Amino acid sequence: MHQAPGIDHRRIFGIETEYGVSLTGGDGACSAGQVAMAMFHRLVEQHRSTNIYLSNGARLYLDVGSHPEYATAEALTPMDALEQDLAGERIMADLAREACSVLADMLGPGVTVHVFKNNVDAQGHSFGCHENYLLRRQVPLDVVKEQLVPFLVTRQLFAGAGRLGEAGYQLSQRADFLDEAVSSATTRARPMVNTRDEPHADPDRYRRLHVILGDSNRSQTVTWLKLATTHLVLSLIEEEVLSGRPHGFGACALANPGEAMRATSRDMTGRASLDMEGGRVMSALDIQRRYWEGCRAYVDELGDQADTVLPMADEALGLWRSALDALDDGHWEALASWVDWAAKLRLLNAEAARDADIFKARRLDLDYHDVAAGRSYGALVDHGMMDTLVDVNRIREAVRRPPQTTRARLRGDFVSKAEATALSWSCDWTHLVVKGTHRHEVTLMDPFACDPDESYRALSEELDRERTRQDSV
To answer: What CA–CA distances, in Å, run from 318 to 158, 225, 300, 325?
Structure first.
């Protein structure tokens, strides 16, 4: 085995999802901002803020443009991150139901709040689904651009959410809105990977890789797989940087990632020619095959230790390959039970066979992404036409309970205790603060540390004492 000694393949995963909102029914107009504020009405009354941390360790806030946003707690595995992401869907649906009651008082009965887990609205504005990966600081950003971006650009073959655009059906919702491969900008010129250096961890050891080119997925399988496969690719890139042994991903460097992103999105076969650095040409399928082969070889090399790199690595590689084989054979329909763009295209084709009304097709497109009032995605699941990985009981658990293998456990437990007291308190990703008789602050710089230290235990005991005092009054 050629694994470099001392390489730690553990990684922290996170997903930040911006949701679109709208309202139907009732009497009178209501802006997206009013809908969003109605969703946060109870939270503002409780916390006097639209930016809060939850007992499951996650962050919930109202982002620019009236987009409710949910950032998952730190997760140690893609499956943990998936459960946290699904908890976010459940929380948004619950907030939408509460908003209906608030808005019914203003607009009359019959109002319905819609919450869209997608990436583009009717006016052509784009909003994001951002993936976060803890990356070893030794990996230079030019290596990320050369070796990771081609994988991200072409993984839309299985990770795209699908979009019914002006120019026809596309694989990706985000492809038309991305400008650069790697940049510190987020709005002026949207990059595929954002370089703003906020690791929320030891900055000498880590950077937080902020991937913003991905679509928001309804498919549980795709959410898990895009995290799992990206982790595998990052593990090989880190191993190459630390050990000096090349894995061949440098041969996939794209001449123009933006053009390649758009060309891939418009080609369901995966065979469109993409210009590579050095004047070569490859297809999206060719590029994905190269990454799959490298990851397959590395996992085989690790043998019994493969689970230390990624639990369920074989399952991820098998599913990844099945998607590439289906497209290579021209059978996209074989992906419709777990790939969002294929599932939605199947629905749209069935609708078109009954009624070619483009407005009905656009409503169906939106309905697929509606986590609060949509019917299409739920009907697919109920009829066994869409695969799932997490049952409803685990989702309910993830709504209230943080992942137990990262510092999110400490943050979530702190929030639960602090909310039960009358003390003034606050927290963020790395700090917990109680403002009692004396200010008491705990810093959580290690995202892998899930066990309380002496300082955290003292803070927790202070909250317990305050709860006991309140109960005795």
So the answer is: 13, 10, 13, 10
Closest CA to 36 of 47, 51, 25: 51
What does the chain come to in residues? 473
Identify which of 317, 362, 320, 311 has the alpha carbon closest to the alpha carbon of residue 338.
320
25: left (phi over 0), alpha (psi -120 to 50) or beta: left
Q: How far apart are CA 252 and CA 261, in angstroms?
A: 14
Q: Please tell me the distance from the alpha carbon of residue 199 to that of residue 401, in angstroms, as a whole number.
A: 24
433 touches 425 (CB < 8 A): yes
Structure tokens that stand for 173 in this block: 């919702």
Q: What is the pLDDT of residue 3?
A: 45
With contact defined as beta carbons under 8 Å apart, do 170 and 266 qualify? yes
pLDDT means per 10 residues, the chain with 473 residues, are: 61 97 90 95 94 98 91 98 98 97 92 96 87 96 95 98 92 91 65 87 95 97 98 96 93 96 96 96 98 96 85 95 98 98 97 88 96 98 98 98 98 97 95 88 97 96 92 82
| CA trace torsion 241, 242, 243, 247 (10° rounding) | -30
Give the type of residue at 160: G
Maximum alpha-carbon separation in the chain: 77
Q: Which residues of 174-194 are buried (b: 16+ CB within 10 A; e: fewer)?
A: bbbbbebbbbeeeeeebbbbb
The residues, ordered by sequence, that sit 6+ positions from 194 with a Cβ below 8 Å of its Cβ are 130, 183, 184, 185, 186, 210, 211, 212
Estimate the crossing angle of helix 284-302 against helix 313-328, to 10 degrees. Answer: 150
What global pTM score does this model have? 0.96
Residues 6+ apart with CB under 8 A from 299: 232, 306, 309, 310, 313, 314, 317
Over the range 144-159, which residues count as b (16 or more CB within 10 Å of their CB) and which as e?
bbbbbbbbbbbbbbbb
Beta-ladder partners of 210: 132, 194
The 3-state DSSP class for residue 457 equals: helix
Catalogue the active-site residues: 63
Q: Is 18 helix (H, G, I), strand (E, B) or coil?
A: strand
CB neighbours of 214 closer than 8 A, spacing ≥ 6? 129, 130, 131, 152, 159, 174, 226
Q: How far is CA 464 from CA 52, 411, 414, in A?
A: 22, 15, 10
Cβ atoms 192, 257 nearer than 8 A: yes
